[in-house]
Sequence to fold (357 residues):
Amino acid sequence: MINLNVNINSKEKTYPIYIDNESIDSFCEKIKISINKKNFLVVISEKVYRLYGKAFNFPSKNLFVLKDGEREKNIKNYKKILDRAFKLNLTRSDMMIAIGGGVVGDLVGFVASTYMRGIDFIQIPTTLLACVDSSVGGKTGIDNAFGKNLVGTFYQPKAVFINTNFLTTLDERQFKTGLGEVVKYAFIEKSCKCQEFNLTNFLNEHFDKIFSKNTKILNELIKICISLKISVVEKDEKEGNLRKILNFGHTYGHVIEKLTHYKKYTHGEAIIEGMRLAFHISVKKGFIDKNYEFYAEDIFKKYKFKQIPSFSSDKILDTMKLDKKASKEKITFILPTDYSKVEIFEFTEPELADLIS
Ligand code: GLY
Fold:
């Protein structure tokens, strides 16, 4: 088993992350022992419940099964889960458990952060995307009509338990959306101020085993990605500065997701296209040469990320202005400046209009 630790300022915000590929049955037993509370509420994704509900075998009174899909990360489900917690008489010394992808984790984290001003919660991410990104770092939230994650909190879990056997039942597109975030880490790793892992080499060396979902290799891959993320969030929990680099590819990625109503493209597909635009802008600005852009494109192709047709500049700019990454009339863009390095830039609307034209 791999054991990592996140240390954010206070002891209260310090928590372990366990990564393993032990059998699902023994993992479920371990989770039950870890919960160790009189009362608890488990929120589990419908698909995960269908596949693994029996193995977890939680009493139905403690279970809330959440339908799958980004649309479920809404205020209605926030309220429904709160109501269940009140009906169960959860106190602040009890616990919530999120089992599923990023939707479940973000939503439950948000409920936990507000229920009686904060109740402990643990994350059990079952998608690659949630393992390498959303389950770590304490961003919680829900979506609304104005965009994704516009309502939320920074609230760290008490522990994260990852078992890569869950990833073996993901369909190809779900798995690949996580690979989008993995590839992102390869392009930002030297800016994460972490020990050198050389994710790019790891990806090249283990490409086939990653695609065939070899759980041992996935343990290592997730360890590297999470270590990079830990290094960033420990230095900047609330995205004052450094943490913004984790949004590489996201400024335009979120535009694509929003303009296609979170239906047509997965998050991974959208942020890969966002990275393509970032490389394009960097070449235009003279931060990198064309060879690096070609190199990046080769990687996107190797991971079978097709190009997404572009939108009009007006639509792109209008949508970007609404995003959390826009501040004080300027739009933040994370751009590559060297191999595996990125920097944070801010552009005015006319500057950006020129760059994306
Ligand atoms: N997903 C980016 C972050 O956690 O900051």
